[in-house]
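Weekly puzzle thread! Below is a chain. First person to post its structure in token form gets bragging rights.
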Amino acid sequence: MASFDQVKPLIESKTEEFGVELFDVRFFGAGPRSILRITIDRPGGVSISDCERVSGAVGAMLDEENFFDGKRYTLEVSSPGIDRPLKTERDFKRIAGRDVTVHLDAAINGKKCLRGKILDCADGILTIDTGKDSASVPLAAILSGKEDIRFK
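Winning reply:
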């Protein structure tokens, strides 16, 4: 039997074979069933075909590894979507120059929620232009972050 911790690096390796990056992977219970949710991404986005190919390959690999001791679970493969959460330095760098909202665990400049344009993200520090000033925020202090999407 292969555990989640054992198959996670195998899943990442398998997604790389298809030219996509593993954005997130979670294994959790949802009522009486279990779900393995894999989120993939690449510059320019992923297609339904990408999700299908990754799902087929990962599903076959998990069967070979006897993941979850052969118990039933649902495998879901999708893209992070337009309102994807921003978690890592890579996520913030990807959208540099765009507007974001970040919620913080402790106030910076008297605010626990900052909105503004990403100036930079390096060495674990996100720098945001809030319009009045700029704020340097440690990524570890960010509870959640999202790109502010505006439609014209």
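Puzzle host: Confirmed. Bonus trivia for everyone else. The mean pLDDT is 92.
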